[in-house]
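Case study 2.
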Amino acid sequence: MSLLVCRSLYKSFDGQPVLPPTDLHLAPGSLTVLIGESGCGKSTLLRLLAGLLSPDGGTILLDGRPCAGPGPERLLLFQEDTLFPWLTVAENVAFGLRACGLPAAERRERVARLLDAVGLAEKAAALPSALSGGMRQRTALASALALRPRLLLLDEPFAALDALTRGRMQRLLLELRAQSGQTMLLVTHDVDEACLLADEVHVLAAGRGIVSSCSLPFPQPRAPEDPQLAAARSTVRRLLADSVER
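Prediction:
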């Protein structure tokens, strides 16, 4: 059974279709990647799923129920962190929990557990200005996971990080997913990242939506030098090239 089902989801701006009628199914606990050239509708699809944009047509079902507008069951993590600069790391992570009315004791326990999981327990009292880019993204990730969303949407969350920090964040994402069983949908331009993380990769093309898909059934964690991973990268690169040439 699918956690998320999109049927003929469609969006246009100024009369120009940005996302043509698109179908998407996400299994519970899956990590799915959207990849494609700039302007093909990847980020638009994420924003539609997060409720930040309203579709011009089609339906979005979560657990079999229609959903519209933002909600804590669907959270979007952006490339640039959206932390409150005047709040500490712990206060940022607790912000959504406080807004939801979670009792203070449970709030403190959940925040402490998440900060430990992302390696920021010692930075709980620090302000975002005192953190590196990787630390800020770890804080943003903890803030999203604190609300225990049914679906976590990630829009190139590691693109602005240096290669070493990006690798650490990729490993952290996989570790947190293994611990929580979190369902994730991630946008990236990076074929290596897509194949390292994904259970399934969907290739989007401008004006045509999802044009091809590739399953990656081999287990995590994956070593970059794994021959299976090399073969997957070749397949995704070929699908990307085909999507542009048509």
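The two ends are 33 Å apart (CA to CA).
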